[in-house]
Amino acid sequence: MSSRLVKELREKEGVTEKIKAQNTMLWVQKMNNIRNRVIEIVNAELIFL
């Protein structure tokens, strides 16, 4: 579930390998943001319900 959500959010927000090549720190920030949001979503749906 989490890998699917990460993939969907990456595509939705345009976080691509091109960004990774051009500006690695920006890419890392965006990916960390996405991963943190996915963790929150998964916890809310699977653990806290």
Write up this protein.
By secondary structure, the protein is mostly helical. The chain has one domain. The longest helix has 24 residues. The chain is elongated. The model has no long low-confidence stretch (mean pLDDT 94).
- Percentage beta strand: under 5%
Structural class: mainly alpha
Q: Major beta sheet, specifics? A: none
Mean pLDDT metric = 94
Q: Helix coverage percent of residues?
A: over 70%
What is the count of distinct domains? 1
Rounded radius of gyration (Å): 12 Å
Distance between the termini: 16 Å
Low-confidence parts, pLDDT < 50 over ≥5 residues? none
- Tally of helical runs: 3
Query: What is the global morphology?
Result: elongated
Quick summary of this structure?
This protein has 49 residues and is mainly α.
Notable traits:
49 residues, elongated, mainly alpha, 3 helices
Which helices and strands, and how do they pair?
Elements: H1 2-13, H2 17-22, H3 24-47
Helix pairs in contact: 1-3
